[in-house]
Write a structure and sequence with these properties.
- This protein folds into two domains: 33 residues; 102 residues.
- The N and C termini lie far apart (52 Å).
- The strands form two sheets. Strands 1-2-3 form a three-stranded antiparallel sheet, with no helix packed on it.
- α2 packs across α3.
- It is an alpha+beta fold and 152 residues long.
- It is built from five helices and six strands, in the order βββββααβααα.
- It is 45% helix and 22% strand.
Length: 152
């Protein structure tokens, strides 16, 4: 780690602790040359996942896209709650048996998660995910969800 003051590349770690709700490590360091102290943050790098789209194209996984769909579906939730939902979905994706995941499976995982969090968010997302265009299809979706809720 380069010292921000003198550019020397060796330092001692004085203190380490969790930051950003356990998603990063905060380290207090002291440069071995100029003896000044500075703080660094260590975070997990990129996630090596690929998404297989409906038309067969393959693209890199984007957390931002997942965050955007959760944000649209769950507008009532706080930012912290939305981050937790995205983290939980992402954890399932990371534990997938392959680094390539069909977009259909990602949508199913999101639906399952929303089903237990917010009924309106579930219906909102399902309407888009299932490409519902007719009122009859919408009514059928709501009926199915009501049956699920009763079993729960």
């Amino acid at each position: 780690m380069l010292c921000p003051y003198c550019g020397f590349d060796e330092s001692n770690v004085l203190e380490s602790r969790d930051a950003k709700s356990g998603k990063a490590t905060r380290r207090r360091r002291q440069c071995l040359k100029c003896k000044k102290r500075f703080t660094t943050y260590e975070e997990i790098g990129t996630i090596d996942l690929r998404v297989i789209k409906k038309d067969g194209r393959v693209e890199d996984y984007s957390r931002a896209k997942l965050e955007k769909c959760i944000d649209k579906a769950c507008w009532k939730l706080s930012d912290e709650e939305k981050d937790k939902v995205v983290d939980e979905i992402e954890m399932k994706l990371l534990n997938w048996n392959s680094v390539e995941i069909p977009s259909k499976e990602i949508g199913s995982i999101v639906l399952e998660k929303l089903k237990n969090i917010d009924p309106v968010a579930y219906i909102r997302f399902a309407t888009i995910y299932m490409n519902i265009k007719k009122i009859e299809e919408f009514e059928q979706l709501v009926k199915k969800f009501k049956v699920y809720q009763k079993k729960k």
